[in-house]
């Protein structure tokens, strides 16, 4: 079980990385509007035209 | 996908019994408008809806109609005056306040959007605007109805951007309080970071704790135990130093100000538990409680975040832009050589001495004195007087009142901070800073409780130590952790969050969390009259034919005469319903403040106040008063008086129910109004209120509320106008009606968004229920501790039991709090 002496510090390293990514995601505004993300998936983007009525 | 506006041939049994496809309102008789959407012909109720539908389908955005969650609001038709108002937004002086330019020359601004119904609306605006040349990027946020636009000022102007939004059927205006919005955004992100760290590290700590628990059960070598303890300590440190920092900061502030609050017990518990666990880790012996600590922090942070976001959502619904389509004025420049010119300027740029032209139906932009013209103005928002006031040359007018009948030329006397509005605004600010507070009970209870626990823990420690018990330290620590006030700390915020969220769904936006508690405890409700208990508009209440003319005929003639007037009496007549086919009046002459004359079908008629009729026809006439404060006016022709009309500001249909409900709850209802005593008396008798006083100035109203508070009542105030704002600030809890002035809305603790009094009734019920649930939560939290503490003092509680007990107890409290949001009516 001595491998734990390696694994646990390794997991701490991973946690630090994940925490960094989480903070980046929050700061870059990805958590700002949680309602739109799910909804926008439903709107396909193929067919809009710019010609006007 | 064609999108031609279509004419539908009239056939029997046609589908025009359907409501308008765009806005859902019924289609009026004789309106035949339609748009082909998705291959089917859809009926529209007006040119506004049709134009918007044509725009949407024309740009290939029909998917919007499939995905929207409900119908949209009927768009106002713009026209020239609207476009010139947008043009004001391009002025650099104004743009400096809300537009920022980056190094590449691109401008960006935050716009508040109105009439957003669902995420599909956001998608529609984003998709359409992105395709417009000159717009670099646009991001619409559904949660707070804000659009962040970046554009190239060389290729497109802001006014055009706003026009494009208007063509889609939404209103956009610059967000005021950009600073406040940014601040909210930063605060929210900070909270999410703290929750994220607490959650991530907490999960690691709990993983280690699970290992430790099994170790307690099955045995674990001391080396590994020591490693897990030390890892736990290092994982908990960031949680305490970063995520839990607000608790410590607030606790220190509370201690310095001697105010009881939940944060002192929380901070104490965290520190003591961590100190004890760290000491046990250093010693190499004894239980550690890192999992309880991080779980405690995590749960509390989540609870506070939920409460914060519900409150902010309410506040954003209430916030209306001070710059909303900024009020403009028409300045007249007179020179000796040329004809006088008119220029449109922002009202904020007027100086004393400027002469402005105020058309009928427009807002008077600043305090001033009438130079030319005569008309009546509506000062009800400022003074509460619902009857229009006659003004002619030499009369003073107040900035913010509405000019009703004919154009006035006004010399500006006071601008900016010297105006009447500003003086009232300052009264409001002073009132807000002196606002009476109702101390929350939970804070005091928890402080007393923690004090008792500390004494108990000290006693246990002393007893164990002096008895020479080996595990005196563990026992003391377990007493402290078991008493951890997690449930107690969640009791109030969770309930308030649930209650305010439900209230928002029902149309009441609560801006300050403690308004819920104050609303539940309010013993006395003070109402304004005009616009609050009444609709604020005159309605025809009686038609008395005085000769052998029929009332329908009299109404038709009167409607023809009053057709283009904006006077409240004219609106009452034209709003009284169709009097058959419309007649046309010719040769209309308006006598502001008195009446009109004109010809209908060749006969000459007069309509106006009885003294006016007497003057015009030479006959003696009765006076125009009495009848319970209603306004009386007469239709006459040259020979005889034909018909007497009475119009009054009718109470809202749900006002009576609300008063009755308040009485049933044992609360008092009062009317304090700036309107005439006669009108107030009439309303008092109609609604059965306890007390009614009229003719009150804003200061006098405030004084009355102060006296009520001094006599021990908890006062809730409901109002809408500028004259209510100082009073709103003085009451324990202030409620504003939605269409009220900015001043009233910003001074309020809660806003009735859908402008209905029965929302208030539902809100009061909910507040009372929420208060009951908070008391239940506190009772439970204390009962749990009373059972668990003796067990801990006896040494029976292991770390895992303490953690389990705390989480179950918190779950119970949160579950109970969710009941505050349930739809069940009691």
Question: What is the compact description of this entry?
Answer:
The complex is a heterodimer of chains A (53) and B (826). Chain A is mainly α.
Secondary structure: elements and pairs:
The complex is a heterodimer of chains A (53) and B (826).
Chain A: H1 4-27, H2 34-40
Chain B: E1 5-6, E2 33-37, E3 40-44, H1 47-58, H2 63-67, H3 80-87, H4 92-95, E4 100-101, E5 107-114, H5 119-130, E6 135-141, E7 146-151, H6 158-167, E8 171-174, H7 178-218, H8 222-243, H9 245-257, H10 263-283, H11 290-318, E9 328-333, E10 341-346, E11 355-358, E12 367-372, E13 375-378, H12 380-383, E14 389-391, E15 396-397, E16 402-403, E17 408-414, H13 420-433, H14 441-467, H15 472-482, H16 486-505, E18 508-510, H17 514-521, E19 524-527, H18 529-533, E20 534-545, H19 551-562, H20 568-574, E21 585-591, E22 595-600, E23 603-608, H21 610-617, E24 631-637, E25 641-651, H22 655-664, E26 668-672, H23 677-687, E27 691-693, H24 698-710, E28 715-719, H25 725-730, E29 733-737, H26 742-747, E30 750-752, H27 757-793, H28 799-818
Parallel strand pairs in B: 19-26, 19-28, 26-27, 28-29, 29-30
Antiparallel strand pairs in B: 1-2, 2-3, 4-5, 5-7, 5-8, 6-7, 9-10, 9-11, 11-17, 12-15, 12-17, 13-14, 13-16, 18-30, 20-25, 21-22, 22-23, 23-24, 24-25
Characteristic terms for this protein:
heterodimer; A: 53 residues; mainly alpha; 2 helices; 0% strand; B: 826 residues; alpha+beta; six-stranded antiparallel beta sheet; 30 strands
């Amino acid at each position: 079980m001595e491998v734990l002496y390696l694994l646990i510090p390794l997991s701490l390293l991973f946690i630090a990385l994940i925490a960094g990514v989480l903070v980046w995601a929050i700061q870059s505004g990805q958590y700002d509007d949680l309602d739109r993300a799910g909804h926008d998936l439903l709107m396909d983007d193929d067919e809009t035209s710019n010609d006007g009525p | 996908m064609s999108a031609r506006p279509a004419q539908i041939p009239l056939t029997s049994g046609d589908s025009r019994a359907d409501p308008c496809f765009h806005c859902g309102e019924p289609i009026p008789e004789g309106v035949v408008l339609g748009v082909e959407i998705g291959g089917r012909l859809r009926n529209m109720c007006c040119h506004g809806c049709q134009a918007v539908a044509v725009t949407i389908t024309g740009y290939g955005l029909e998917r919007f109609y499939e995905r929207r969650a409900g119908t949209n609001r009927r768009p106002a038709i713009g026209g020239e005056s609207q476009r010139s108002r947008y043009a004001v937004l391009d002025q650099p002086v104004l743009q400096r306040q809300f537009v920022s330019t980056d190094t590449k020359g691109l401008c960006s601004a935050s716009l508040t959007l109105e009439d957003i119904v669902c995420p599909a609306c956001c998608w529609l605006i984003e998709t359409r605007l992105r395709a417009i040349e000159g717009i670099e990027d646009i991001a619409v946020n559904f949660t707070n109805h804000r659009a962040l636009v970046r554009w190239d000022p060389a290729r497109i102007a802001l006014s055009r951007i706003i026009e494009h939004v208007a063509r889609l059927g939404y209103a956009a205006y610059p967000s005021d309080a950009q600073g406040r919005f940014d601040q909210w955004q930063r605060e929210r992100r900070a909270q999410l970071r703290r929750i994220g760290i607490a959650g991530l590290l907490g999960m690691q700590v709990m993983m280690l704790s699970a290992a430790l628990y099994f170790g307690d059960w099955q045995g674990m070598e001391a080396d590994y135990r020591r490693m897990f303890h030390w890892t736990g300590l290092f994982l908990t440190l960031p949680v305490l130093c970063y995520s839990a920092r607000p608790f410590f900061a607030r606790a220190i502030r509370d201690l310095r100000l001697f105010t009881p609050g939940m944060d002192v017990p929380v901070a104490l518990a965290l520190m003591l538990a961590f100190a004890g666990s760290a000491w046990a880790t250093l010693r190499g012996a004894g239980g550690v409680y890192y999992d309880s600590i991080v779980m405690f922090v995590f749960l509390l942070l989540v609870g506070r975040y939920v409460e914060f976001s519900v409150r902010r959502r309410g506040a954003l619904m209430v916030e209306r832009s001070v710059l909303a389509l900024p009020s403009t004025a028409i300045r007249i420049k007179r020179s000796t050589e040329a004809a006088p010119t008119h220029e449109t300027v922002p009202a904020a740029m007027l100086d004393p001495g400027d002469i402005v032209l105020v058309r009928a139906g427009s807002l008077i932009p600043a305090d001033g004195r009438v130079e030319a013209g005569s008309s009546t103005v509506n000062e009800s928002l400022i003074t509460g007087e619902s009857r229009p006031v006659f003004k002619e040359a030499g009369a003073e007018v107040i900035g913010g009142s509405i000019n009703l009948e004919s154009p006035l030329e006004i010399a500006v006397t006071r601008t900016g901070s010297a105006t009447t509005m500003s003086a009232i605004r300052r009264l409001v600010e002073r009132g807000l800073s002196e606002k009476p507070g109702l101390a929350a009970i939970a804070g005091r209870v928890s402080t007393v409780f923690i004090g008792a626990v500390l004494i108990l823990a000290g006693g246990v420690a002393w007893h164990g130590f002096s008895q020479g018990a080996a595990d005196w330290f563990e026992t003391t620590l377990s007493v402290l952790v078991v008493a951890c006030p997690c449930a107690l700390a969640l009791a109030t915020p969770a309930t308030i969050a649930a209650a305010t969220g439900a209230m928002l769904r029902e149309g009441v936006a609560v801006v300050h969390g403690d308004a819920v508690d104050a609303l539940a405890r309010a013993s006395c409700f003070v109402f304004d009259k005009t616009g609050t208990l009444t609709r604020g508009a005159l309605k025809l209440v009686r038609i008395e034919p005085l000769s052998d003319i029929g009332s329908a005929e009299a109404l038709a003639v009167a409607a023809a005469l009053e057709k283009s007037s904006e006077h409240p009496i004219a609106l009452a007549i034209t709003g009284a319903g169709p009097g058959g086919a419309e007649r046309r009046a010719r040769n209309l002459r308006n006598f502001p403040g008195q009446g009109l004359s004109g010809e209908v079908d060749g006969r000459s008629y007069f309509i106006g106040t009885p003294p006016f009729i007497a003057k015009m026809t030479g006959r003696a006439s009765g006076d125009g008063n009495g009848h319970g404060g209603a306004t009386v006016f007469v239709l006459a022709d040259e020979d005889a008086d034909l018909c007497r009309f009475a119009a009054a500001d009718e109470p809202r249909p749900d006002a009576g129910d609300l008063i009755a409900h308040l009485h049933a709850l044992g609360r008092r209802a009062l009317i304090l109004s700036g309107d005439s005593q006669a009108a107030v008396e009439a309303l008092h008798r109609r609604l059965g209120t306890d007390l009614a006083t009229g003719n009150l100035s804003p200061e006098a109203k405030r004084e009355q509320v102060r006296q009520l508070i001094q006599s021990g009542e908890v006062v809730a105030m409901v109002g809408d106008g500028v004259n209510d704002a100082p009073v709103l600030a003085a009451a324990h809890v202030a409620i504003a009606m939605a269409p009220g002035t900015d001043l009233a809305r910003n001074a309020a603790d809660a806003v009735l968004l859908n402008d209905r009094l029965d929302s208030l009734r539902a809100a009061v019920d909910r507040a009372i229920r929420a208060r009951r649930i908070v008391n239940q939560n506190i009772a439970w939290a204390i009962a749990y501790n009373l059972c668990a503490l003796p067990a801990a003092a006896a040494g029976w509680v292991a770390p895992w039991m303490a953690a389990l007990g705390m989480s179950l107890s918190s779950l119970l409290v949160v579950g109970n709090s969710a009941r505050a949001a349930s739809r069940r009516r009691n």
